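STRUCTURE:
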């Protein structure tokens, strides 16, 4: 029997595994499941032998496991159905699965926009009437936790819609996590209430104020360099900024968004305020109060 390798987001891969096995007249609940420290040749061997009445099978979850060559060879050469969950296998392992079995991929949305798109599709498939704001809210609250989002959609399917962002927020009862780039973006745009709200969310979620200050220092160093790049030759694209700053596209994009609202004089003033706040925290002043005062100052 061929190996069936399910890749992608763990929740979606698990869901696809169940549907695929049932479509092939195999009840996934009847198969033993092996994961974690139990994924060894000794413990798996008994499950990789055909039963008295024909094909057996096993579900193997490789999350947190680094299978060696001998184990992989045993799995791909088994005489029974092996349903393998492997979220993001390296290229060599993927080639082995493709050569000796069948790879059944699932999506793996992680960026906010990708997760929002997945929520939109999932809600449409379940005929849950969510507007764009409601889909974005679920993506903001749960991030890549698709199982959590699916549970909320199941709950909403029992209620009368349509659902706006505010309506879904009342049902879910969670605040979106803070975003330090969103905090700085709101501050430099003069939206002080939004900036302080982002800060308070970050602190309420358990963010260490000192680590948050470190993030602000790093992010503003990118912003300052983006301001310098713009002064060199006018508008700068996200790709050029990422290359010149030596960072990934997302932080480069966010730094540019802030930098476009600043000039050299303002960035110097902001850097001086950040330095003063950093020193105040290190001298023992209340870190949360110092951070909140800094965010207000950056909004001026």
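SEQUENCE:
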């Amino acid at each position: 029997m061929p190996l069936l390798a399910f890749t992608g987001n763990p929740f979606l891969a698990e869901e696809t595994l169940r549907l695929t096995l049932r479509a092939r007249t195999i009840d996934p609940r009847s198969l033993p499941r092996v994961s974690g420290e139990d994924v060894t040749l000794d413990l798996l061997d008994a499950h990789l032998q055909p039963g008295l009445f024909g094909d057996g099978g096993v579900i193997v979850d490789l999350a947190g496991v680094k299978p060696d060559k001998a184990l992989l060879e045993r799995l791909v050469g088994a005489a029974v159905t092996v349903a393998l969950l492997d979220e993001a296998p390296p290229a060599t392992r993927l080639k082995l699965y493709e050569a000796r079995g069948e790879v059944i991929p699932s999506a793996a949305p992680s960026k906010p926009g990708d997760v929002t798109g997945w929520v939109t599709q999932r809600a449409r498939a379940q005929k849950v009437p969510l507007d764009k704001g409601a889909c974005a809210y679920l993506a903001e609250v749960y991030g890549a936790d698709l199982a959590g989002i699916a549970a909320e959609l199941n709950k909403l399917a029992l209620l009368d819609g349509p659902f706006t962002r505010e309506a879904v927020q009342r049902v879910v009862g969670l605040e979106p996590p803070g975003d330090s780039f969103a905090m700085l973006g709101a501050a430099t745009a003069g939206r002080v209430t939004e900036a302080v709200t982002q800060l308070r969310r970050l602190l309420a979620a358990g963010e260490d104020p000192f680590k948050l200050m470190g993030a602000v220092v790093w992010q503003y160093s990118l912003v300052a360099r983006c301001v310098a790049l713009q002064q060199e030759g006018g508008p700068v694209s996200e790709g050029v900024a990422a290359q010149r700053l030596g960072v990934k596209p997302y932080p480069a994009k966010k730094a540019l968004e802030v930098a476009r609202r600043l000039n050299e004089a303002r960035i110097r003033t902001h850097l001086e305020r950040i330095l003063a706040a950093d020193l105040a925290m290190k001298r023992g002043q209340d870190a949360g109060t110092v951070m909140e005062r800094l965010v207000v100052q950056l909004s001026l």
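REMARK: Residues 63 and 89 are 10 Å apart (CA to CA).
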